[in-house]
Design goal:
This protein is α/β, with parallel strands linked by helices. It has two domains: about 25-85 and about 375-429, Urease, subunit C, domain 1, CATH 2.30.40; about 85-375, TIM Barrel (Alpha-Beta Barrel). The protein has helices spanning about 1-15, 125-130, 165, 200-220, 230-235, 235-240, 250-260, 280-285, 310-320, 340-345, 350-355, 360-365, 415-425; strands at about 35-40, 45-55, 60-65, 70-75, 80-85, 85-90, 135-140, 150-155, 165-175, 180-185, 195, 240-245, 270, 290, 325, 385, 400-405, 405-410.
């Protein structure tokens, strides 16, 4: 009987389509590659026309006009070259199908769990992750969700065998959901459905600060027992980790920044910042960068301008803040639209190269990976792509080549396979 069962299992496994998993990751770069005649968008606000970029062993070795190409030559005349776009604050690789609990590793039980590491749950073979690459989104911050302190994120590149190969920056930061000053009414208890003051706000804030005080004290002393949550928190006090604080309104932001600085947190990043444009002087004074929410969403309040979310990034940039775009509140699959969120800000009057920085150079600085990623420069990683047109416009964002650390990627995904199949059907082929 057992033999029959084993045989049936083997037959079932053998019948699974071989195309289910992600493509085999690209091999390491073995020859020098030169991209010639291209318009290079550096990611720091500058553009180099008729540029030649050369990379060897995964690193950029030359960049500029009038440079003689070496090795394999890619003639990209009339095309555009960009650094790989970076998606912060997403649970990519932690959840595949929202409705399937077995594929959901984005949160864990508990309210204060900084010791929960997202990286070890990262699925490098995720089809959702794979679908980012054809739009130029080549790196991301794998971020846990839920609770008050959700856990520790890591930064990965999107073409790997496993989480060890994917890791770019391990345990880069801890994510804190600051308590809300307002909450929606609980209609099922007869309360008004609108926003109401959160009467537990002070108590909830004190709970957060008490945890941080205890963690800080734990690091200064010699405890007889190990506390994993306190151990994981030490990086935010010595500056080796960033604390990403999710807050939206003025009071939330001011309370969070003021209190956390007083508790000894060294590097703060504001995530969301819906009303940050009202307190830009305060944020500049404390040197707080912002990962602002994605633009393709509705305003939160009835008296906001209908296009408020479209223009918020520009308001913050114009005020002199370091700004990146994230889409923490949207579904994972929407992350592939990251370049078009930046393109929306161009439509609000921001210069195109500054809008590009919102998803490249600025984001790399905010995440602390700008030594290798985010811009095109000699000595940095050859993580870049060639687009037929403007990558911030979905009509021009048509990639012909993409590289991560010099490795040439496949741009085929489950979505492109379906597109080809049904284009054939409906075009009569």
């Amino acid at each position: 009987m057992k033999k029959i069962i084993y045989t049936l299992v083997a037959l079932l496994i053998g019948s699974v389509p071989t195309g289910f998993g992600q493509q085999t990751p690209a091999p390491a770069q073995t020859e020098t590659i030169s991209i010639t005649g291209v318009t290079a968008h550096i990611g720091d606000g500058t553009v180099v026309d008729n540029c030649t970029l050369i990379f060897t062993d995964g690193k950029i070795t030359a960049l500029g006009s009038g440079i003689s190409p070496e090795g394999k030559v890619i003639n990209a005349a009339g095309k555009h070259l960009y650094p790989g776009f970076i998606a912060p604050g997403k649970s990519l690789g932690l959840i595949e199908v929202n409705a399937v609990r077995a594929s959901d590793d984005q949160d864990e039980i508990g309210g204060m769990i900084p010791h929960v590491r997202s990286l070890i749950a990262y699925n490098a073979e995720s089809k959702v992750v794979e679908s980012m690459r054809p739009n130029g989104v080549l790196l991301g911050q794998v971020t846990p969700k839920g609770g008050t302190i959700s856990g520790t994120s890591s930064i990965v590149q999107f073409d790997a065998w496993n989480w060890e190969d994917a890791a770019v920056k391990v345990d880069d930061g801890i994510h804190l959901n600051w308590p809300n000053t307002f909450r929606r009414g609980r209609w099922w208890l007869g309360e008004d459905r609108g926003y109401q003051p959160n009467k537990q706000y002070g108590e909830q804030v004190e709970e957060v600060l008490a945890f941080l005080r205890n963690a800080h004290a734990y690091g200064k002393g010699k405890s007889a027992s190990i506390n994993p949550a306190f151990e994981a928190s030490q990086g935010i006090f010595d500056g080796s980790k960033r604390l990403y604080v999710y807050a939206q309104d003025e009071k939330q932001i001011i309370d969070a920044v003021t209190s956390l600085k007083q508790e000894g947190v060294q590097q703060l990043v504001l995530v969301g910042g819906y009303h940050a444009h009202r307190i830009t002087d305060f944020l500049k004074k404390h040197n707080i960068p912002i990962l602002v929410n994605y633009t393709h969403t509705l305003p939160d309040f009835a008296d906001d301008d209908y296009d408020f979310t479209y223009k918020l990034p520009k308001l913050l940039v114009d005020a002199g803040l370091l700004v990146g775009i994230q889409n923490a509140d949207a579904s994972n699959f929407q992350t592939r639209n990251l370049p078009f969120y930046a393109g929306q800000v161009v439509g609000q009057g921001l210069e195109k190269e500054k809008a590009l920085q919102l998803i490249s150079g600025n984001t790399a600085k905010i995440l602390g990976i700008d030594n290798l990623y985010g811009t095109l420069a000699v000595g940095k990683s050859a993580t870049l792509f060639i687009s037929d047109g403007d990558a911030l416009d979905m009509r021009g964002n048509q990639l012909s080549h993409a590289f991560i650390d010099g490795r040439e990627l496949s741009l085929e995904t489950h979505q492109t396979e379906l597109w080809k199949r049904y284009m054939g059907k409906f075009s009569g082929q």
